[in-house]
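User: quick one, fold this
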Amino acid sequence: MHDLKWIRDNPDQFDAALKRRGAPPAAADIIARDAERRRLQTEFQAVQSRRNEASKLIGQAKAKGQDASALMAEVAQLKERTSVLEAEERTAGEALDAYLATFPNMPAADVPEGPDSAHNIEVRRIGEPRKFSFKPKQHFELGEALGLMDFERAAKLSGARFVVLSGAIARLERALASFMLDLHTRANDYTEIAPPFLVRSETAFGTGNLPKFADDLFRTTTDYWLIPTAEMPVTNLVADEILDEDVLPLRYTAFTPCFRAEAGAAGRDTRGMIRQHQFSKVELVSIAHPDQSNEEHERMTACAEDVLKRLELPFRTVVLCTGDMGFSARKTYDIEVWLPGQDAYREISSCSNCGDFQARRMKARFRRKGEKGTQFVHTLNGSGLAVGRTLIAVVENYQNEDGSITVPGALRPFMDGLERIAPRARG
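Assistant:
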């Protein structure tokens, strides 16, 4: 959500920010809608003031034995007019709020400009892709050959874009989640949260998922929404709250299933686990002081990168351009892991600084020491990491020519020391 007063004072800057995101100018339209709402509000206050004044005059006239019928008729008319104006002002305000909610966050000044991912800029590249003595396979080829990834049975149960994992691969996924949670809570100072997986519409609105992205979500018949990421419930933990400055930053991590309709992904990544309706993720969320959110963004990205470093998986980090950023973000780093089966880097984490954009929608504020007024907090979120995609990266990068998978050293304590996932013996 955007600050109306700031838009009134800086219309050109607002339109310039929209232009950077590939959107047409809207400041004049917003200001006009706001002016009409304020006109109705001013007229309501004037009518209400006259109504109160006339009511007093009625009392005075009656006390003097004078005829107050004209004043009484005026008060009746004013009462009717206040009811009309109150309804019109409320409708105009709600319409303006709904209109404002459709505009994306303004990009930070240092975000590169461009219409799509081709204009993202690589920040760093860590690790060298492994040189194989054989043609590396994709994860679904390896998993199916091992008998531990079953897409056919998943389709029988639920349709396309689902998988059934079993045996050591299922355990490997659980090991990855435990490894990430332990790293973030023990080394990176995050507090583990176990949030609900079903949320109300207000919660989805708070993080910017509604109303714009309703088609990307799954909705129950009882009007709950299945979370597309733990960002949604965890960020909203501070909704409608005023925090003390001393508690910032708050850092949370959560391991949850995630549910996405993938409405705009028809024909993309139809094989395997890259793009599914249900997947698991370890999420990172920070509620930060505005003066520290840029620093917190760099820290969060480094925490996500640390997972890949400890798993010894090659990756690169890119800063997204204005046309490739998410709706709520003011700046985003994508971390892309190397997948030898695809001979490409693929996204495994997005770490975003949302500034006060989500906080305004959630009404999440803090109070500086010694001050009476409040300010909006800054919110940040990132994958630390997408567990399913990390599983894909491990399977592909640690594959052997015989189809087995070497278990990374960092994960062996979570796998009872298992060093290799081997093909099942055929009887």
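User: anything notable?
Assistant: The mean pLDDT is 95.
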